Structure formats: structure tokens, C-alpha cells
Amino acid sequence: MKVNYKLLDLYCALGEFICKSENINGVDIQSFLGIPYGKSERFGMPEMIEIYQRIPVNFGTGMRFPQNDVPPILNLFLKNPMMRKEILTNKDKTDENAFILNVWTSGTENKKPVLVFIHGGGFTYGSGTTPLYNGKYLAAKGVVVVTINYRLCEPGFIPVMVGGKLSVNRGFFDQQCALKWIRKNIGFFGGDAENITLMGQSAGGLSASMHMMSEESSKYFDKLIVCSAGVNECMTLEYAENIADSFLKQNRMSEPKELLMLSWKKLIRLKMPLELLSTPVIDGIFIKDDARHIMEKGGFSSKPVMLGTTGDELKMIDNKSWYKGLGIITEEENFKGKCLREYGSEGVRLAKELRKQYKSLTEIQFKMMELPFHVTALRELKLYSAKAPCYGYRMNFIPNAWNGLRGSYHCAELPFIFGTIQDMDYKVTSENLQQMEIMQNDWIAFMKNGIIPGHDFFGNNGKIMLYENTGANLIDFPQREIIESLQGTGIFSKIQKSFMRGRDNNFVA
């Protein structure tokens, strides 16, 4: 594969860019890595860059915000797909000012649909140049792909007092700033500024959902794709102020200015509950009410939506070394007692229902912990469908990592969608390549027109797309009856909180 690096003059107000040019499946693709979209002080709000002083404009390399690296050696023992090198960012340059985005395009002329992707990683790791999200293959199929960086860990999401004022939602404001830049400037890269699909997975999916509920953010995209996530509970400003105070005390600090004096390496190692990172603050600016209330009231703009989950969301952490921290019971005689203690009689009833489909005791418990993903998807399919065209999906295609050991794990749809399954460090099967074409055809159609030929909207008949074997068929939402019968009992919230505690115990982001 021939790859050339050169300066490309876009003949526009932005300036000159470092461009990598390569031929993908007979199509010339240009990638523009490391384009600064904004700037900010450590705990300040981002400001979008309007005029560029530097030549060239972009850095031409992968960049990431400070984050704690996962030792790759762990993957040899845990076989966690989230720790594979395709999803890690070790080759990126780490910088506290990595307010950058990346663009892949098949040419700067014409107007092509745009995909903006917000990466996941539990708000603690990741970047837009993670190999898994390389946009070259989608660009070769006529989509302009943009990936963005945003502040992670404490710098991005922990409430802090700055100059006597409470600073919150910084990571979400970073994303919003990037969206604004893209709406304004993507035309210079061959993108249609009036046809932008926002997509996020996991923490990125939560983020994308929040932008749908934000009056300001929703101005900057036209369609939404959410993978394995949804809107989350929000905290009030008063509660956020208490968090800011307790965060300092927990780390033996007395004043917020001490945070400014720390190196970024020390800053991101401070103690914090990971759950706080995924809890937006009702600040009256980014979000004006609890996001769940906004959704329930239909207080969001009417845009085409697609959302769904994978069939084995938590299979990547099905490892005996994590059982204790996750509270997994391995002895049958102790299982019923655990269900009663943690989830009440509803837990026993749910376990009984799951036994009809799953025989292994550990598998039943993992499927219980996965249910909040599916519960969220079902709830939001109903709410979006009441106002806008909405598709649902369940992803059961299995990448051939460790001969399919982890099933259709959390984020397994991404290598199929981006086409990067072709670059994975394992043998890709012919079936995987066929599955990739099926998903890409459907999802690109949605990005182009908001319509997927051959599939109905969820609101028409309550059916979703099942990606399984080598097909995409319409099915009833799996386990819908038991989910709906248990809604309102609080069991799914209990299960989710139990998992979050276990995740924190095992440092699983």
C-alpha cells in the first residue's frame, strides 16, 4: 500500500494541512490527523479556534489526552478485547492540550455524508486515533469520517471550583466545541455540513445521547447512532459542589489551586469514584434538566436515530480473577441467597427466567449484569420512536478474536462498521468479511439518508435488526416481556449499581 505525506493547500481560510494519502480499494483517501479545534486552561471551558496562526494547521500525528495506560501484558492473561492493541492508544502523543480532531475523506470536492465518532473508554482512556476507529475504509465508501478527542478523567469530568466558580461538564463541552467546528468547517474536506451523523459507543454513546438532549449541541448534527449506551442520571449543581469539596478532602487537599499545581501524571492518578465521570451536571447551559426527564417529555429535536447493543456486552470480563470483585457466585447453594439480598424476590424471578436460556451459573449472572444495557435500549427506542424515525439493532456477529472466545463483546460492532476488522491482529474469517459488508451497507445507508432499505422503524412494529450468522433479520426485542414486567421495581438500577461497584473494584473502565 502506497502512503504519501505532503502539504495540501485547501485554498481556504483555514490554511495548509499535513495530509497522508493512500489508496484504499482503488480509492484515493486523504487523512488529516491532529487538527486543533479548540483550546482551554486546565479546568476552563474550551474556546473554538477561528483563525489558525501555525503552519501547517494540523500536527499530522495521533494525539491523546492524559490517561492511565493499561499494561498490554494483562491481555495475555485476561484475554479482554478492550485491552488489545487495536483499541489502545500507546502510539499517540500525550498532551494536556490535545483538543484535536481527525478527518478521513476521499476528496475535498463534492458533498459527502459525514460521520462524527465519539470514542468510548469509560471516560478514562481512548482517543480519536485508536486503530479500531480508523476512518479510511468508510471514506473509501463515500463517507467523510471525523473522530474527536475530549478531556478525560479528572480534567474532563470531576466538578472543581475555579476562581470561586464551579466548573463542570468540561469533557462534554469539549465535544460540543468539536461539533461546532465540524458544522462550520467540514465542507473544506468534502463533507456535507447539512448531513452529519453523530455516533458514539459506550462512554461515547452516553456522550452522544447527552448531546441529543442539549439544546445547543443538537444544532450541530442531523442524525444519531448510539451503541451500548443511553442518557444517564444527572446531578444537581448543589450535589456537584459537594463532590468538588469531597474530592479535595479525599485526596488530602485544602484548596482547588493545589490541583493546578499538579503535573498531569499526578492529577489523573487522584482517587475518584469512576461512576462520577459518567454523571453529567444539570448546569443550565449544557443541559437544563435531568436528561431522562428531557427524553421522557420529548424535549429533544426530531432526528433519525439508530441504537442498540451487543449480544455479549460483558463477556470480555468473564474471567475468574474478577469474579470476587464483581460478586459472582460460583456455588449453586449460595446463589439464591445472593439474589434475595441484593435484588429481592424480583432477582430470584429474573434468574429463574434466565435459566430457561442459559445453563451456566456464571453466565446467568453475567446476563443479569448485561440487562441494564438492553433495558436502556428498549426504553429509549420507545421514547425516540414517539417523536422521530428510529431503528433498533442487536449485534451478534462474533469477531474471530481467540476463536470467538468473548462472543459479540462490548464494542464488537465497531471493527465491522469501520472496516478495521481487516487490520486486526488475528485471522479474520471470510464470514467476518461478509458480515462487515452487511453492517456497512445498512449503516452507511442510514448515514446518507436516515433510511435503511429492507428494515422497519422500531415504532412500526416493535422489531429490531438482528445481526447474526450472515444475515440481518427483523426480530422482536429479546426478553422484552420479562424486562417490561420488572420495570418500576428498581431491580435494573440495583443490578447496574452492583456492577459499577464491581467495575471500580477491578479497575475496569
Automatic annotation (TrEMBL):
Residues 28-450 form the Carboxylesterase type B domain. GO terms for molecular function: cholinesterase activity. It comes from the Bacteria. Coiled coil: none annotated. Its EC number is 3.1.1.-. Pfam families: COesterase. Keywords: Hydrolase. SUPFAM superfamilies: alpha/beta-Hydrolases (SSF53474). InterPro entries: AB_hydrolase_fold, CarbesteraseB, Carboxylesterase_B_AS, Cholinesterase, Lipase_GDXG_HIS_AS, Type-B_Carboxylest/Lipase. The keyword Protein transport does not apply. Belongs to the type-B carboxylesterase/lipase family. This is Carboxylic ester hydrolase.
